[in-house]
């Protein structure tokens, strides 16, 4: 029996006595799926049903299209093939049992039962069109109907293998306001589909006073659950980590981004356009989802051109687009698509917002409740009085140098760090993060501290966009990019990307990237100075991950698997951190200092303490 969305710790004798009784008579225990499986119904049920992870069944979201179930069939299908009588009984969610949205997940069964959610017969239509109470009633009715039908079949036909799916609990959880975040540039491999994670969102926008609150709860793959609140208060703002209760003032760049997001909120974009009426231009017609749309452009306050698509029949905004420079992708269109309009306070409001960047979905949010002209408490915009505050990190052009040893430096000062090792006539740099803006600042600093020693090698720790966004500047300088084999094509694509909106050195003088790959281990030795590279992947974070080890200095540089904040406590050990610690021990590395790509220099003892903490 599968109950979607239920918490295991709720399956007790008081909260769920019937399930508890079944478990006592049979089997009820935690069965974790693999760490690479996104916390979303489709891939989780596929992993449970097939006994393989995402790499096997190929399902990464709730649309099962592109699956590899023929090679990895579900357990009900396998039992059916073996000649056993089987039962599949599904409430409400079509792709488990029907040929919809890439389904069925369960291909064959002797007896197959499906109960549609009342009103429309389609689960997602019901979830969008019904209120929360109506939706719950519909799901409860479907669950009760499928339960009664399954009970009758179990009593009368006695199937040897059966699976009964109930979905009301999952709907109740999503109805509070949730969505899917697609992790662009953060998958296991550059060529993989974007990994996903479930997000719960609460947002408040005060357009008149220029204030906003955005609260999110999510869990990155292999990491720990996070709950954060970002607050804009006109000319100031702060971020609040609701798990550690630490407050960080918003940087000037962050304030600019928050104001831009408020102006371009789906509920305010038309107001923003009306305030920029002198820049509005009608450019013609286009078709969106089979419907004719009128297309209008205007210039935002920062000069960005925004294109609006308005349904000719409905008069509603179908989508809007911007185009901007992306450090990795180059000239990139961001599309915000609006649908599921419902009346709210006398206006039509979209209840589904899908964002695409470079043609790929990066976020799919379904709002359960939208209110206009609400009056939230003033305290919502204030930081907790007792919460400690930490200093915000400077922008990408700030480069702070920490000398680790002779000719070894940590280049920090912003959100991402790099490691510089100098030799008699050249240098080696580990990590080129963020953007060309960061790279130019790092280049200038290296000329100060290591004159006459140009960077000959740039080592990528991994391909994730925030850690590779500064590669192009080094490619333009002729540096060799050192990485693992799975990243070679990615580096070549980064070098070839078109940057016409914000030209950089490589776009002004194009050249192919010089890429050197290694497998397992690669050592650079000049005289008594040695830098050893190790691929410590795969792990839940990424398939290939390079760390840099300096045996003489007993120093290890690592990205993402273990971070040490400049202020405040170190986060509890995630699966990524524990696997990293195990890998360091297995390699036999003698480490005293750990220089992370995020935060301050720490020690091996700190890593051991975090890993050993209960």
CATH homologous superfamily identity of the largest domain:
Ribonuclease Z/Hydroxyacylglutathione hydrolase-like
The CATH topology of the largest domain comes to Metallo-beta-lactamase, Chain A
Please give the CATH class of the largest domain: Alpha Beta
Share of β-strand residues: 25-35%
Spatial strand sequence of the major β-sheet: 10-9-8-7-6-5-17-16-15-14-13-12-11
What Rg is obtained from the alpha carbons, in whole angstroms? 27 Å
- Please tally the helical runs, counting DSSP H or I stretches of 4 or more residues: 16
Distance between the termini: 32 Å
Helix content: 10-25%
Please report the total strand number as a whole number: 30
Q: Please state the overall shape, judged from the principal axes of the Cα atoms.
A: globular
Query: How many domain modules?
Result: 3
Mean pLDDT: 89
Structural class: alpha+beta
**Mind describing the biggest β-sheet?**
13 strands, antiparallel
Tell me what the CATH architecture of the largest domain is.
Answer: 4-Layer Sandwich
Unreliable segments of 5+ consecutive residues = 119-131
